[in-house]
Specification:
The protein is an alpha+beta fold. It is about 40% helix and about 20% strand. The chain has helices at about 105-115, 135-150, 155-170, 185-200, 210-215, 220-230, 235-250, 255-265, 270-280, 285-290; strands at about 20-25, 30-35, 40-45, 50-65, 65-70, 75-80, 85-90, 95-100, 130-135. Strands 1, 2, 3, 4, 5, 6, 7, 8 and 9 form a nine-stranded antiparallel β-sheet that branches. Strand 1 (about 20-25) and strand 2 (about 30-35) form a beta hairpin. It is flat, with a radius of gyration of 21 Å.
Amino acid sequence: MSGGSAGRSTGGVAGGENRARYWRDATRPVEAMHARFHDHVYAPHSHDTYSFGITDEGAQRFRCRGADHTSAAGMVMAFNPDDAHDGRAAVELGYHYRIVHLGPSVVGGILADAADTTGGRSPAMPLFARPVLTDPGLARALTRLHVALLGPADALARDETLTAAVLAMAGRGATRAPRVRALAGGGQRRAARRARAALDEAPLTPVSAQRLAAAAGCSRFALYRAFRAEYGMAPSDYQRLLRLRRARALLASGVPLAEAATATGFADQAHLHRWFKRSYGITPGTYQRAAG
């Protein structure tokens, strides 16, 4: 299933109404929707994208490839480009689900970046034979991507979660799993250190995975694996850590929380508060007041 135009309506499933939130990337064919539907019925339609959904609550049923399917809570839906389908609630209370639409160029680019091309073989585009999959690992990867797309994540975090989700879907749900490549020990360390130096030099500057990989001298996927192996976290996690350290210094000097959040690249005070507490176990306000 999918949404139509970008936007948001009011109401909720519990009250018998429908609501949806839509997001789309302005520069590439990546879109996402979060919806609670009680009685909305999708007309038969298809997309020119790969579409991956997760049912969070309730259940939905749809017809696709000549058969009826039901997706209950925790299940993953996988539609190939041009897969015709409809959709409606399968239970009285409706359903709550999230879905991402990824253009073939985005999926193909990620697979090409990560592929082991030994022997000159190009990676084949994935084909999903089953419209409904029961796989908690896939559901987690898609949920992380959806949260990153609709939330206050920066470009680097979105790129990382997008790559992880596509490779999870292609590796676990497609008829042919891709072969991925990795750097050798010395090359892995060099790439990770070059990327870390670039982040250290400009921690507040937004950077895409592609730009960081270029600075490291390797592919985006190879850099991600190398950085995690060397430093125990993704490049986006390290960049956020640098920003948190800068925020701590500002808070210690008496800068108001809202100003510290803006100055260190967080979306707002609540964004800084959430990550500060997750990383340090205390709130920014508690840290600032501890000076006495």
